[in-house]
Structures are given as structure tokens and as C-alpha cells.
Amino acid sequence: EDFLTLIFKAMMKDALNSSHPVSSAVQSSEQIEEMFDALSYIKGASLLLMLKHYLSKDVFQAGIEVYLHNHNYRTAQSDDLWDSMNEITNGTLDVKKMMKTWIVHKGFPLVTVVRKGKIISVQQEKFLYRVEPENWTADASYLWHIPLTYITNRCNFTHCTNAYLLDQKSG
């Protein structure tokens, strides 16, 4: 419950145009200090949970083990973690490409789902809670690779979850 409260607080901050990406190039020690705030930590934790759910617990755990083994006692970058996950998924999913869309964009997407009969359509756009004119920038080019999971009425209770990666504006 406490973690959910933290997530919603971080999302409220991230939904403002004055937000910042989880990962960005820095030029000074002051910029480094600014990067490591509650938003970065909570959003980062949320993204890792999203990835764990999408890949499955076992695949995610194996990716973490490869990452820790390959980079023990050395410095690492975020790409190193994604490369380790790619190694475990054997090219079935480009984790680096997917996760880059989440860590280099500020904010998060709003996904709209519309059902017409048996046809389901999904569309993404950047969610903004409140537009701050002094910080406004057009973010029409933002595109996230959003892992969506769903169940159908054909669920046999042993494998109920299906996955879809929304990597375009609509699908």
C-alpha cells in the first residue's frame, strides 16, 4: 500500500511537463544530484516491475543474474542491464529498445482502449495532468513501447495471460 502511494505521487509529478527523464546526459555534478530524486527512483522501480511482469519472474531473475555476473566489481550503464535481458530473451524481444522509450522520455503514456464487437483498438498519447505554459514543449513525437497484458473468455485458468507490445501510436 505504501509503495502504491509512492507510485501515485511520482506519477503525479511525472505527469507535469516540468518533469524529467529517468536517464539523461549530464554535464555537471549539480545535474547528477538533480537526477537522483524520488521520481527517478520510484519510476525506475515501477519500470523494473513492469518489465518483470512482462518477461516473467524467472526470465527477469535470470537477466538480473547475468547482469550482476557480467558487471560485478565494475561500473555499469543502464544499457548493460538491458543487454543482459536481451541475452536471456534470445532476441525474441529487444528489451533495450523497449526500455529506452521509458527512460529517455519524461512522463508516461495514456492508453485508450476501444472495443467494437470483437475488435479491440488501443492508442497511446502522452498524459499531461496540467499544462504549465512556462514549461510547455510539444511532445507529439513521444512513443513508448508499452507491454500490455490481457485475458480473454477462453481462459483455461492455467495460462490466462496474453501479451501485446504497443510500439506504435495505435494498434
From TrEMBL:
GO terms for cellular component: cytoplasm; extracellular space; plasma membrane. Residues 7-102 form the Peptidase M1 membrane alanine aminopeptidase domain. Keywords: Aminopeptidase, Hydrolase, Protease. InterPro entries: Peptidase_M1_aminopeptidases (IPR050344), Peptidase_M1_dom (IPR014782), Peptidase_M4/M1_CTD_sf (IPR027268). It comes from the Eukaryota. One of its GO terms (biological process) is proteolysis. One of its GO terms (molecular function) is peptide binding. This is LCAP aminopeptidase. It comes from Polioptila caerulea (Blue-grey gnatcatcher). The gene is Lnpep.
